[in-house]
Design a protein that fits this description.
5-stranded antiparallel β-sheet, 7 helices, elongated, 7-stranded mixed β-barrel, 15 strands, alpha+beta, 28% strand, 280 residues
C-alpha cells in the first residue's frame, strides 16, 4: 500500500486518494467524481470494472472489520460533506487519513466500501516460492491470557493443533478463537521489530516467536520446521487495533504486511531459542 495524497480536502478528492493508495496507482490514473455525483457511483464502478474489480458497500461500517484495506467515509462535525480514510485489520483502524478527518471529535464512519475482485478465482495471487535462507529463533513468548504479561522461556513444548504450552492459544483464553487454522502459533521478524524506535517489544507485538534471517511472508502455504517441530504457514498475521492498543503508539500502518505469520503446529516437539527456522 503506497500512500497517495489528495490535491484538496473534499469527499471526491479524498475518496480518489484512498482508491489510489489501496491500488498503488498514481492519483492521475484514478477518476475523481465531479460535484453532485456519488463518489462510489457508476463512474468509479465502471472504471474499476475495467480492472476486474468492483466496490462492495458495507452495511455497518462502524462495526465492520476486514483483514486488508477498505475505504471508510464519515462527515466531521459541522462539515458539509464526508471525507474518506483507509481502514485496515480485524478489528479495523485508520491506516491512512488523507485529510486528518479521523482526529476530529465526534467523527465516525457512516459509509464503507471494500474493493473486491469481480471474479475471485482470476484474482488470487500466485503462490510465492519458499524462502531458501535458514533463519533463527531469537526469542520465545507465551502469555496465559489476552493482555497478560508474557514470559520468555528458553524452550517450550509445541502442541499440534493447539499452540505452545502455557500460552493463551492452547486453552482459548486469547483475544481470538483457538483451535482454528492458523491460530496455534504466531511469528514476527526481529528485523521488523528493530525498525521501530524504540524497537517493538513483546508486550506490543504479542507474537509467540521472534525470528531473524528468514522471510516469514514467503512461508504462507509452505511447511517449515522450527528446530524439530514441523509447522505450516497459513496466512499473514496482519495488524489490527488490538496490537495498536497494546503498543499505545501508532504501529498499525507500519505493520501492514509486516506483522508476521500465523501458522499451524503439525507435530509435537520442543522449540528452543537458537533453533533454526527453515522451509521444508
Amino acid at each position: 500500500m503506497r500512500e497517495v495524497h489528495p490535491t484538496r480536502r473534499s469527499e471526491a478528492a479524498t475518496f480518489a486518494a484512498c482508491l489510489a493508495t489501496i491500488l498503488e496507482l498514481g492519483l492521475e490514473e484514478v477518476p475523481e467524481t465531479p460535484p453532485g455525483e456519488e463518489v462510489a457511483g457508476w463512474r468509479v464502478s465502471r472504471w474499476l470494472g475495467g480492472l476486474g474489480l468492483g466496490l462492495v458497500a458495507v452495511a455497518d461500517p462502524a462495526a465492520f472489520s476486514w483483514p486488508g484495506p477498505w475505504i471508510g467515509c464519515g462527515r466531521p462535525p459541522g462539515a458539509s460533506e464526508r471525507l474518506a480514510v483507509v481502514m485496515y485489520g480485524v478489528p479495523s483502524g485508520i491506516v491512512f487519513d488523507p485529510a486528518g478527518a479521523g482526529g476530529a471529535d465526534g467523527w465516525g464512519l457512516d459509509q464503507g466500501f471494500v474493493i473486491a475482485a469481480a471474479d475471485i478465482a482470476l484474482a488470487r495471487p500466485a503462490a510465492s516460492p519458499a524462502p531458501a535462507t535458514v533463519g533463527r529463533v531469537e526469542a520465545i513468548f507465551v502469555s496465559p491470557a489476552a493482555g497478560a504479561a508474557s514470559a520468555s522461556p528458553d524452550a517450550v513444548r509445541a502442541i499440534p493443533g493447539r499452540g505452545l504450552e502455557g500460552d493463551r492459544h492452547v486453552d482459548g483464553r486469547g483475544t481470538f478463537p483457538s483451535g482454528l487454522p492458523g491460530s496455534a502459533l504466531t511469528l514476527i521478524e526481529d528485523e521488523v521489530c528493530a525498525s521501530f524506535s524504540p524497537p517493538l517489544a513483546a508486550h506490543e507485538h504479542r507474537r509467540n516467536l521472534v525470528t531473524r534471517g528468514i522471510d516469514l511472508n514467503a512461508l504462507v502455504g509452505h511447511e517449515f520446521s522450527v528446530g524439530d517441530v514441523r509447522c505450516r504457514g497459513m496466512r499473514l498475521c496482519e495488524p489490527c487495533t488490538v496490537v495498536e492498543r497494546y503498543a499505545d503508539r501508532p504501529v498499525l500502518r507500519a505493520l501492514v504486511h509486516r506483522g508476521g505469520l500465523r501458522a499451524d503446529i503439525l507435530e509435537p516437539g520442543t522449540i528452543r531459542v537458537g533453533d533454526p527456522v527453515r522451509a521444508d
